[in-house]
Amino acid sequence: xxxxxxxxxxxxxxxxxDPHLRADGPDLPGREIGDGDDQLAAQLRRLVMHxxxxxxxxxxxxxxxxxxxxxGFAGFGKRLRLDDPANPHLDPLEVRDVDQxxxxxxxxxxxxxPEAMPLTPSEMRDLFPIARRYAYLDHAxxxxxxxxxxxxxxxxxxxxxxxxxxxxxxxxLRTQVRTRVGELLSVxxxxxxxxxxxxxxxxxxxxxxxxxxxxxxxxxxxEFPANIYPWMGLxxxxxxxxxxxxxxxxIDVEALLGLCDGRTRVLTISAVQFWSGFRADLAALSKGLxxxxxxxxxxxxxxVGALKLDLSAVAVDLLAAGAQKWLLGPIGIGFAYVSPxxxxxxxxxxxxxxxxxxxxxxxxxxLAFKPxxxxxxxxxxxxxxxxxxxxxxxxxxxxxxxxxxxTVLRLADRLRDELPRRGYALVFTPTAAGERSGIVSFRxxxxxxxxxxxxxxxxxxxxxxxxxxxxxxAHFYNSDEDVSRLLDALPQ
Length: 492
Ligand SMILES: Cc1ncc(COP(=O)(O)O)c(C=O)c1O
Description:
The protein has 2 domains: 1-117, no CATH class; 127-139 and 157-380 and 395-492, Aspartate Aminotransferase, domain 2 (3-Layer(aba) Sandwich). It contains 14 helices and 18 strands. It has helices at residues 38-49, 121-125, 130-133, 147-162, 167-185, 198-208, 229-232, 253-258, 282-288, 340-345, 383-399, 401-421, 449-458, 480-489; strands at residues 5-6, 13-14, 32-33, 54-59, 62-66, 135-136, 192-195, 216-220, 240-244, 264-270, 295-299, 318-322, 334-338, 425-426, 439-443, 461-462, 464-465, 470-473.
């Protein structure tokens, strides 16, 4: 335990003289930590229990550490690597520029190597303190936070409290997060721009296209306002919004495409409808629009993080999401994916120093936009939000998006199966596999939804109350017991 000590229970590890933890040269021990060192392994496990570190024990004497956060290591001026040199796409953890206060926590990397650090649902559940008390089944509303998400944000805040701002350090982490968002969608980082929320991402299109009187937008009736008001706002410019009305929640792709004509500039749709949980067939839509000038825009907040979205296989022009639901991130941050075609057509509306190539030449003005989607990030970024969202996406990547989708659908299917047997009707009954999502909306034929909702809340079961129905939305880390708690607590 050379040089490693633990402080007064706050979960800090200090002074990493231990050779397992640090090396100065390129010949590194890799990501094994605590090899043969039971005491260190025990300490790390304790930190993991507190959610301060992501790690997994691979045996009695080995613990692999997820180097998202290393709190309070001394020796920041030296090269510190905990990663695996055999995996070149894992960012090397160099922290030369944050040497001033080794006693303060710092963040070396906001991401980890998903394959090396897989997360099972129960391991992920341990990172959600809320799950100890509540059956939290409301991810279609606002997600609770995992401790690594909180840590990512507070590390930034704590350092700023006592240390000068280190732009290069935080920029490196912002770039990591951009890359990870891209990975989640199977696209490169050049298509990703950070936004405040879903609405702001969709608003980029509404504000940035060169609309002409008589243009139109095709959308879906009963969608969340985020995907309606930005387009309604164009009425004063002579742009018409045409809405397809889904029947029993089901969106008729042919009917939607049929609303498009020679003046349609945008077809916009939610990947999952927030009230019915109906999942849109984006592949069919994008196929139907192939060869046409209509831009396909997607509000993905009810899908991304829960259902796998592969934008390398489906041609979408802009996809926007806030982090606060299935992505498990904080409120007030999100992203948009911008396709090359959309990048050409969508002019940045709010233009600032960070929109342009020469973003540090403050008075040598040159309005040449960055060649990628960063041009839509006009100025000072929301670092705590970006880092928190990055830590959340990191958890999802470690869990494996395909597995997340399978589990989310399995838990939702269980509800869809068992609710009718308990006298509750589903608001929408999906039949095809591709129509289902993590959202299950239901109601009792007689009992007032607000009463059911309040009763459940008293018992620590959290779901949403919509006007005349209830909506449950379980995530990957929820257990079957959470679902049973809901089912068993429903009044008959
Ligand atoms: C389909 C859909 N879009 C958008 C939002 C939220 O939008 P924003 O991130 O702009 O707050 C919600 C939230 O309820 C939603 O269900």
